[in-house]
Amino acid sequence: IPERSSDGASAPLDTSLYERLADSIDVSHQDVPTLLHCLCKQVAATVAGDRHDEFGGPAAPLRFLAKRGGEGVDDGTDEGQQDGTVSGEMKMLQDFLDGAHAQLLLGDLPGLNLQGEVAQDDVAEGAAGMVSGAGQSGVLDGLEDGSLVLPCLDRASCLHASDQLPGSVSLVAEVQRLLSHVRLPGVQRSGFPEVTPWNPAHRSALRNRFYSFMPGFSIVEIERMLLLSGFEQLLESAQPERSWNLEDRIFHEKIPAPLLVQVLSAAIQQEYLLDTKYDERHDCLLIALHCRGLRGRSLWHSWQGDLLSEQNAAPGSLCSEPTFNDWWQLISGEAGGGEGGGGARASAAPPSKVLKSDARAMGYCRVLEQVVLPADGSAILSTAIQRGLRETFPRPSEEQEGEFVAPPRTEQKTVRVLKDGMSFGVSTDAAWQRTAAGLRAAREERDRLRADAEAARAAALAEREQANAARAANGLPPAEDHGEPEDLPQGPPPEPEPSSPSERRLEDLQLGQFWAAFPGGGRCSVRLHHERPWYVEGATLSDGSVARPSVNFVYAPASGYLLQVLGDGTVMQTFPPQACAEAVRRQRASSPAGPRPGGDGDVEVSRTVTPLGVLARELLSGRREVHHPDGTRAFRNPTLQELRGRTEHRRQVGEGGTPMVRFLEELVAAYAHSADWLAAGTPPTPNAKAAGLPGHWVVSRRDGRAFGRAPLLEEAEAEPVAGEGDGEGDAIAAEPAAAVKDPASTLRDLLYGSVLEEEGVVEYEIDPISVSSFMDPHTGQHVTTSGDAVILVDDMDASCSICVLSDGTRITSRSGPSMQVTIEHGTLATIACQIDDSGSSPVAQLAITCADGASLRVTPQTLFRARLFPTDGSAESASSNASVLLRRPEGTLLLSKGSGEVVVLGRPDVEALGEQGALDAAEGLAGAYWALLDGDKICMRDAEGTEVEVGGDRTVRCKVPGTDPETCRTPRCRVPATAYGCPEVSSLPQPEGIMQPRLLVVYGDGEAEELLSASVARGLLRRAGGDPRAMVAPGEPMGSPMDRCKCHTIYRTVVADPAKVPMEPLELPPTVAGPSDFAASGAGTQRTYTEFRQLIEYPAIGRQERAAFLDARARFDAREAAHRAEHAAYGEGLRARRPTKQGQEAKEVMPAEGGA
């Protein structure tokens, strides 16, 4: 345990190689094996102390080059990199781990070498191993588009088919090499006996003996029944409380041996329990991934390790219980010392920092888990990870029921719901907790002041009564009552009390946050936007019938482009930092011009779309650009203070030294070295006005006319001017100038503009933008091109207008019964804004299409008479609580109603009722999960009436009909890896409708197959039939001996490159289409491959077939038992008997080994 420095500072870690390798792969294609590979490369390079070349591999180690006399130091090459293996890399990694383990136990002892003694040849081999993939190409390179065919189970090849690491290294090969080191049951005969009990001939004879008991059945059918019987026995041993019948597992899916690791890894991530059984008849390992459901639908189990494990635990326990002497022997170096074993470690004194480590803080590790299995097929997991002990014995003053359980010192709890491949949950909103605590403290302070004022008033009145009593005692009349004294402190007014059920105290609100994780890497979060107050400032009550907090809905696809929906219906898309940094690096490397707002390097970081189709873009420098559907556009450059603030903010969030921060620093320097036009009293040049004065809005119309608007400031500040001098956009700036007596008149005079008092701005004219306009005689389209690289295309009947921006963004506006504005980019999500005027009032909707196949429907809503009604999202009927419907490609629906209610509908319900039917019936639909953010909980009621509630405080409550949840106490879970149930529900029947198990069989040669139920397999075929990109070849007959089986194959065309949203074709006039291919195409050609999945359907097993098999199995077992008894009786007559004395029985003499 290394000591930390006193100032808390630590040496910076070198992560440049890791970042360079990870950044070379698109965010949507980054998975755990990819990042682990990049991390291993960084660790190997760090341990070896190597310098990195431009391909991500190490150059020659400095100490190795020094031993060679400095040869190669200048050019940074290493001959050993060309012909080596990964042995050196693995050896260096092993030495590093051994050294880290020694440092953990012994501390910083003298002479400890963490890197170990690595020979020169090993270093060269390690360096060569790191670039062993050099020269390899991607999977798709050299192949025609669509000619590559990959199995669906090979997720690594399907995900990384188009990915390459620096140096043309195939990422697929590196990921597969890493996966080859993963150990799972069945992989490389893990879980098989070390010595096979039967040889192939013995197994063949055993199989042939059983075939005669089932005449009329094919060998394939008999072997499958035996396999299902083995799985039934395995599941019954794992879940003895229920019986199993697996006759519906009539579909099998073959798993090649190289893909077994990927299939098992993906299956284990679904939080199943795992049980295995070796079948000597087939020399295979049966693997069952299942969820165990006890009575009451709740189960508890635990894992214990370290000091909590019993001393006589089974070999599978994590570790034994060490004593103090064991630890002392270990850290002192005397363990295993003896003669020749002492060395430097034996003579070294044990470091004090190890003795200061308290086992009550570092050990006693435990994991407790509660599993709730409702009847809808979902699972709720509550996991508590505990470490350390807070108390080691019970307090004398406390009454202890049963055995004392020491409370943990550290505990981390998580609760998640698993349903249809997704996981979701709710957590308490910590930000609102702090706000509510502040409101509660303010109310308590007012109560205290009010109580003090009342006490002072009571004391004054009591003093007056005493004075009157004294006057009466002296025969004097009482003093004249002038009311309460004026100098008494007046306390705050009384707190208002709720007058209706819809009114509640703000401090009593419990707000939560909903989160969800989808298959494929998509993420979603929903929270109440309480930072925007929905109540009157200073109020203590909230009336839900008058105003409700808006909802902030966030969806993050695997690509990393964050999509956020606000309560007013606007949609904001945020670019990932990795994409921004790469774009800045690429643009600055290819541009010789200096930094300026809106120039090369000033990349887009976010964009916002309003319900009316207005696009607002924000660039890295803080420059804002607004584009209207009619072609009107505006932009605003940042001020010097704003630019400095953005630069400092990015430094604080840990982006210092990145290309983005370097660009901002260069831009700030360019601003600071420019002239001060306002302080000097000289008007800016026309070029500076056209480029945009800092803090001023520049508005331009379709016809090229432009004008600027500057806000009226009480104290004018000098700001930089973009575009002064050479017309290339050089920025000029200055330090703040002195206050001007009349800022409005000064700006008006310098800018030659006029003051608009109502709007509080100064408006001035700018030189018009050059515009070229013409009409194509063949198509009738009216085309306008402008000097700011904007193309406008209008149809002849003015029914469609298209605006193409310089970055490829396309804004399409269509008129008709309903106005529709579509904003497309290709990389980003496509947003279609539609306003329907057919009803009594216009209604707006936004349809969003994401690259991962998900879609969102946003409906702006406003609150009226305690109900939410759709609106058009305009300023006159602004939206306050927009609703969002998320459709996932796997069929799951997630609906945010706009005021804190989130509904999760599974794929089976959507397929059975349809999308609209499921949404209409969600209120009373069994199995639908409701997240109540204003309440901090998730509720669900299944078809059997079981009610489940998940709280944001990581608690799970399950109420089964006919039981009282208060009487069901959580068991102690004394024995690890043992299922515990609630004893109060022992009279209930076994629950049905739990998650179905996954069954896999791994044969001795590494090949495997998974047994699928008929409902799961037919669901896959049905969904593939409805996919326009897929083709299904159903029911193909197979040859002998599987002539009664059928083969179903699914072919699907998949895009190998990072996913993009397809854009509508744009037909431009021939005079424009040539130079505007970038705008017409929208996105480059993407490479594709064919993904296939094959299912084998076996004949159905009916009641007669099952009865015949059970009868044959019973007769076969009886025959085998009789045969073994008969075989054991051989030689009974050859046994000799010893003579006995009188009164003693004769003793049997057993023959000696090898003879009688």
The backbone outline, from C-alpha atoms, is: globular
Mean pLDDT: 80
Distance between the termini: 66 Å
Fraction of residues in helix: 25-40%
Tally of extended strands?
53
Number of helices: 27
Characterize the largest beta sheet: strand count, sense, and whether it forms a barrel: 18 strands, antiparallel
Radius of gyration: 38 Å
Structural class: alpha+beta
Q: Poorly predicted ranges (pLDDT <50, ≥5 residues)? A: 1-9, 51-86, 100-136, 311-322, 334-347, 714-741, 1075-1083, 1149-1156
Residue fraction in strands: 15-25%
Key phrases:
1156 residues, alpha+beta, 16-stranded antiparallel beta sheet, 27 helices, disordered N terminus, disordered C terminus
Task: Summarize the model shown.
With 1156 residues, the protein is α+β, with helices and mostly antiparallel strands. It contains 27 helices and 53 strands. The strands form eight sheets. The protein has an 18-stranded antiparallel beta sheet. Strands 29-30-31-32-33-34-35-36-37-40-41-42-43-44-45-46 form a 16-stranded antiparallel beta sheet. Strands 1, 4, 5, 6, 47, 48, 49, 50 and 51 form a nine-stranded mixed beta sheet that branches.
Give the secondary structure arrangement, pairings included.
Elements (H helix, E strand, L loop, with lengths): L15 H8 L8 H17 L13 H6 L19 H20 L13 H11 L18 E3 L3 H5 L4 E2 L3 E2 H9 L20 H12 L7 H20 L12 E5 L4 H9 L4 E7 L4 E7 L7 E7 L19 H9 L10 H5 L4 H4 L3 H4 L3 E7 L6 E9 L22 E10 L2 E7 L1 H44 L29 E3 L6 E6 L5 E6 L12 E3 L7 E6 L5 E4 L5 E4 L2 H13 L14 E6 L5 E5 L4 E4 L5 E4 L3 H16 L3 H14 L4 H4 L5 H6 L5 E4 L5 E6 L9 E2 L8 E2 L10 H9 L2 E3 L4 E6 L4 E5 L6 E5 L4 E4 L5 E5 L5 E5 L3 E7 L5 E7 L6 E7 L5 E5 L1 E4 L2 E4 L12 E5 L5 E4 L4 E5 L1 H7 L1 H6 L8 E4 L4 E5 L5 E5 L4 E4 L38 E6 L4 E5 L1 H12 L4 E8 L8 E10 L14 H4 L3 H5 L6 E10 L5 H26 L7 E2 L10 E2 L7
Parallel strand pairs: 1-51
Antiparallel strand pairs: 2-3, 4-48, 4-51, 5-6, 6-47, 7-8, 8-9, 9-10, 10-11, 11-13, 12-15, 13-14, 14-16, 16-17, 17-18, 18-19, 19-20, 20-21, 21-22, 22-23, 23-24, 24-28, 25-26, 27-28, 29-30, 30-31, 31-32, 32-33, 33-34, 34-35, 35-36, 36-37, 37-40, 38-39, 40-41, 41-42, 42-43, 43-44, 44-45, 45-46, ...
Helix pairs in contact: 1-2, 2-4, 2-5, 2-7, 4-5, 17-18
